[in-house]
Amino acid sequence: xxxxxxxxxxxxxxxxxxxxxxxxxxxxxxxxxxxxxxxxxxxxxxxxxxxxxxxxxxxxxxxxxxxxxxxxxxxxxxxxxxxxxxxxxxxxxxxxxxxxxxxxxxxxxxxxxxxxxxxxxxxxxxxxxxxxxxxxxxxxxxxxxxxxxxxxxxxxxxxxxxxxxxxxxxxxxxxxxxxxxxxxxxxxxxxxxxxxxxxxxxxxxx
Length: 206
What we know:
By secondary structure, the protein is of the alpha/beta class. The chain is about 35% helix and about 15% strand.
């Protein structure tokens, strides 16, 4: 007589913590419109929890300590609105414009204040600009984040002539851009789960 077996239950993985890092701090920036759009996509997913880290709202110090030396008094407190949130993230989405063929100094400053917070975590890019769509900013970021042991997602979201892609209410009018976000986030989720599972078995060693 065959004993009936109980179907194996697979528990759903805990939602991924995705930090959206808004790189522009310029007055009159277009970043809030792009950020709202990206956050809308993230909010629709049940496998991701989003935390928007806006560098215009969380300004960081710009004078780094001498190499190998502790930061100046008060620096840890100044970093507190950002550092723990980056450390808690399983993955990142960088939102960046292109300034002078690269990305903003405010974003580089935030990157340079941190190190292990980036290790073995995936990063998806959303860039915007005029005809280039911010692609040169993203290519520069890939090199920098590789040095910090992060994994960058191949498929990006690039908004060419971004100001003409949204209506007066900030709604995206280009279906291809919405499709690009889904592709990027699907890849981000794959890498984030794979790396999170790997680190649970064996801590990452830089």
